Amino acid sequence: MKCLICKSEKMCGCKWIGVIVIILVVIIGGYFLLKGGYQPPEALPTVLLPPVTQAAITVQDQQVTEDQVTIQEVSFKDPGYVVIHLSEDGKPGKVLGNSDFVESGTYNNISVVVSELQEGENFLFAMIHIDDGDDIYEFPGDDVPVKVDDKIVVKSMTVTKSIAPASIVREITVSGTEFSLSPASITVSAGDQLKITFRNDGSIIHNFKITELGVGTKTIGSGKTDTIEFTASASGTYTFFCSVPGHRANGMKGELTVQ
Ligand SMILES: [Cu+2]
């Protein structure tokens, strides 16, 4: 390899000069970079929304399962509350609930707890009320509806409330003896929560298993009980039995039918 500096045909001492120059460049360059050239990134400036010049409210129809509604967007020029009125003859009527005290500004997705939502459709109005300065909602009273151009700031919305069907808890006691399980046939509805207590009314150890559903009691002695709880989600017929060797074949079995 040819020396780049002195053009000597052989490797010479010149290469070390090159190495030293590179090291110096790195050190000096690094020094200046750290001293002045490098600036840590500054935090992004906070985006300040312009002050609210006019009260406004935006709502959307919604489905709920609890007595609570969500206001999509609301702008308060002055501190106040979002108040939910029931529609009476198409006009804002009885108050069903109000938001917490809200300072001036624009807010998204404010929740308001309301009372007396009916199952099915509820026709409601969301209205902005002003606070009279004590941070306590008073209406009827001084916390009156806000007006813009002499009009109340209000939007109507339909809130559909659905009530989840309550699952039924079925409590069943199964007695085990030598060699039977009683009842030997149990029928429940899909979705039922089952609480099965196995009672050993025999004189030797037994248990209660439904392997197809992955549930079972402990193996217990005479006079003892053990309880299992599970939800019968899938329809079908499942065999229950005592898994102590020989007991199932001797009659300790039965059927759980989930309809
Ligand atoms: Cu048994």
Verbal overview:
The chain has 259 residues and is mostly beta strands. It has two domains: 56-161, Sandwich (Immunoglobulin-like), CATH 2.60.40; 169-258, Cupredoxins -  blue copper proteins (Immunoglobulin-like, Sandwich). The chain has one helix and 19 strands. It has one helix spanning 14-37, and strands spanning 56-58, 62-64, 68-76, 80-88, 91-98, 105-113, 120-130, 147-148, 151-152, 154-161, 169-177, 180-182, 185-188, 193-200, 209-210, 215-216, 225-231, 236-241, 253-258. The strands form six sheets. It has a five-stranded mixed beta sheet with strand order 2-10-7-4-5, with no helix packed on it. The chain binds copper (II) ion.
Strand order within the widest sheet?
2-10-7-4-5
The number of distinct helices, counting runs of at least 4 residues, comes to 1
- Output the CATH class name of the largest domain: Mainly Beta
CATH T-level fold name of the largest domain: Immunoglobulin-like
Q: Could you give a short account of the major beta sheet?
A: 5 strands, mixed
The span between the termini is: 88 Å
Overall residue-averaged pLDDT value? 86
Number of strands: 19
Question: How large is the share of residues in beta strands?
Answer: 35-45%
What is the CATH architecture annotation of the largest domain?
A: Sandwich
* Topology order in helix (H) and strand (E) letters: HEEEEEEEEEEEEEEEEEEE
Name the structural class. Answer: mainly beta
Report the C-alpha radius of gyration, rounded. 38 Å
Judging from the principal axes of the Cα atoms, what is the shape?
Answer: flat
User: How many separate domains?
Assistant: 2
Helix content: under 10%
Low-confidence spans = 40-47
Distinct compounds present:
copper (II) ion
